Amino acid sequence: MSGAPVVVLAGGTGGAKLARGMLDVAGEDLVVVANTGDDIELYGAYVSPDPDLCTFWLADRIDDRGWGLDGDTFAVMDGLRELGVDVWFNLGDRDLAYGVHRAARLREGARLTEAHADIVAALDVAARVLPMADAPVRTSVLTGGTWVDLQRFLILHRGAPVEGVRIDGAASTPPSPEVLEAVATARAIVIGPSNPAISIGPILELRGMRAALRAAAAPVVAVSPIVGGQVLKGPTADFLAHTGHAANAAGIAALYDGVLDGIVTDEPWAGALPALQCATMLGDPAERRRVADATLRFAESLR
Question: What does each C-alpha distance from 262 to 106, 115, 249, 251 come to in angstroms?
Answer without folding.
Answer: 38, 34, 11, 14
